[in-house]
Design a protein that fits this description.
It is globular and about 45 Å long. 68% of the residues lie in helices and 3% in strands. The chain is an all-alpha fold. The longest helix is centred in the N-terminal third of the chain and has 28 residues, at 9-36. A two-stranded antiparallel ribbon has the order 1-2.
C-alpha cells in the first residue's frame, strides 16, 4: 500500500485507526454543531420520527470490522479495517456521555465527558504510536524497503 510507505504493514492499521478516530471525532463535533446552530440543509438522521444517534453507526461499523477481521488477513484489508475501526470508535466515543448518563447531554456540561475521553484517547494512543514508532517492522517489510533503496 502506498499510503504511509515507511510504516510496516502490521502497524499501518493502528496508525490509520488513530487518524480515522481523530478526524472523525473532529468532523462529528463540527457536523453536530452545524445541526445545533440550525444551518440550512444540515439535520439529524431520523427513522420513523426517531432520532438515530451516531453511536449506532459506530456500533454497526465496528461489527462490520469484526466480521471482516475474521475473513480478511491481507495488509491492505488490515489498513482499511484500521481506518474503519477508528471511525467507528470515534462515532461511539463522541456520544459516550449519552451512553453513560442515558440522557442526551451532548451540549450540556455533562457532555464534556465525551470530549475529555476522546482527547485522552487521541493523546494516549498518539503517544504510544510515537514512542513505539518503527521498532516493530517485520523482516519482510525491511527487506522490501532495502530492495527499494537498492533499486533507486
Amino acid at each position: 500500500m502506498r499510503l504511509f510507505p515507511g510504516i510496516s504493514s502490521e502497524r499501518r492499521g493502528f496508525v490509520l485507526a488513530w487518524w480515522g478516530f481523530a478526524l472523525t471525532f473532529g468532523g462529528m463535533r463540527l457536523l453536530t454543531w452545524l445541526i445545533h446552530i440550525d444551518v440550512a440543509g444540515v439535520g439529524d438522521v431520523q427513522a420513523g420520527g426517531v432520532h438515530i444517534h451516531h453511536y449506532m453507526w459506530g456500533i454497526l461499523l465496528l461489527a462490520a470490522v469484526g466480521v471482516a477481521g475474521l475473513v480478511h488477513r491481507s495488509a491492505r484489508a488490515r489498513a482499511w479495517m484500521g481506518l474503519a475501526y477508528g471511525v467507528g470508535m470515534a462515532l461511539i466515543v463522541d456520544e459516550a456521555a449519552l451512553l453513560i448518563s442515558l440522557e442526551d447531554v451532548y451540549w450540556d456540561t455533562d457532555g464534556w465527558v465525551s470530549i475529555a475521553l476522546a482527547i485522552a484517547l487521541i493523546a494516549v494512543v498518539g503517544g504510544v504510536l510515537a514512542v513505539t514508532g518503527g521498532r516493530r517492522s517485520s523482516k519482510q517489510d525491511r527487506s522490501k524497503s532495502q530492495d527499494r533503496n537498492w533499486n533507486s
